[in-house]
Amino acid sequence: MTDTHTDNHIDRPTDSYEVLVVGGGAAGLSAGLVLGRARRRTLVVDAGEPRNAPAAHMQGYLSRDGMPPAELLAVGREEIARYGTVELVQDRVVDLTRDGADGTSPLGFTAALAGGRTVRARRVVVATGLKDELPSVPGVAERWARDVIHCPYCHGWEVRDEAFGVLATSPMSVHQALLVSHWSKDTTLFLNAVAEEDLSDDELRRLAAAGVDVVPGEVAELVVEEDRITGVRLADGSVHARSVVFVAPRMVPRTGLLEKLGAELRETPMGSCPVVDETGRTTVPGVWAAGNATLVAQQVINAASTGYTAAAAVNGELVFEDIDARVGVARDGAA
Predict the structure, then answer these.
(1) What count of Cα atoms within 13 Å lies in the side-chain half-sphere of residue 152?
(2) Pairing state between β 118-126 and 130-133
(3) How many whole angstroms separate alpha carbon 30 and alpha carbon 270?
(4) C-alpha distances in angstroms, 102 versus 99, 108, 125, 140, 270?
(5) pTM score
(6) Sign of the four-CA dihedral 171, 174, 179, 184
(7) CA atoms within 13 A on the CB side of 208
(8) In whole angstroms, what is the distance from residue 298 CA to residue 240 CA?
(9) What is the dihedral of CA 108, 130, 80, 12, to 10 degrees?
(10) Any bridge partners for residue 287, and if so which?
(11) Closest CA to 247 of 333, 323, 138, 327
């Protein structure tokens, strides 16, 4: 059975696409929207595990400030469906290989989906996001994205002037405590596993200047009463009253597929990310990356922007590849 869609004057089997987008979050859906409007036969594969699923709202997205993340994704799915050339499936890409890497066949990719389907595509956009690994302190995972938060730009306004606690996970937590103190002058840094002697004199002076209290000692748990945080309990049994706790999770970009393809990675203070150019193009020909898979500090609006940019670059490359093929010009410029 073949698909008779001929927007680009080419009949393709139903399991073949011009572009495969791996990931259906803000970056992946944005890429799918642009590709749909560019009349590209596109498959968006969504594993259904958005990073911000626990959050009740998202902030800082112009015209969508305060919208629940699930609602943004639902609207995005409706928008890409309007264009007819984009298919969205809830599945997971478990294997991805590059075809034609030895020069014996045209550049393309073959993907195996967890549901048993095999698909092929000329280009790939990887928008698989990242996973937050939280410290094992009791109460942190249970309250995550409610009154345990990490980003003041995402949630700071909503909890302004409350009693903040910052649960240190590394010496970088000093920076977090200094930053969030702008939203509340009642901020306490709990050093937890960080030794007090690991803090520099400059850091201690900055913390004092910002009015941030520093409490040494291991944190045993977060105290929760009537479905809200009321304090932070130390291992010595003492309890410090707090209503909001900031914590910096270990952010792990989901780069498995990119690594399998041989994409070059770069080390950042927050983990390994693929090396990309300004459009999201990786070091693997034909593969782009977008969203938090490329830079862990991105907000939703930034992730959507990178999906747009990657999709426009993919479409542009395909346009000129097809034109060159019609006139017999090789991609390296040789006739």
Answers:
(1) 17
(2) unpaired
(3) 25
(4) 8, 12, 21, 49, 35
(5) 0.88
(6) positive
(7) 7
(8) 32
(9) 20
(10) 124
(11) 138
DSSP alpha helix (H) spans, 51-200: 69-81, 140-143, 152-155, 173-180
Q: Which two tokens stand for residue 17?
A: 């696409």
Tallying the residues shown for the chain, one arrives at 335
Share of the chain above pLDDT 90, in %: 75
Helix (H, G, I), strand (E, B) or coil at 296: coil
List, for residues 207-248, the tens digit of each pLDDT value. Answer: 999 999 999 999 999 999 999 999 999 999 999 999 999 999
Q: Structure tokens of 124?
A: 């790939």
What does the radius of gyration of the chain's CA atoms come to, in whole angstroms?
23
d(CA 184, CA 72) in angstroms, rounded, equals 29
Long-range contacts of 8-15 (CB under 8 A, 24+ apart): 8/39, 8/40, 8/41, 8/322, 12/41, 13/120, 15/117, 15/118, 15/119, 15/120
Strands (E), 58-168: 86-90, 93-99, 108-113, 118-126, 130-133, 148-149, 164-167
Q: Are 170 and 150 in contact (CB under 8 A)?
A: no
pLDDT of 256 over the 50 cut = yes
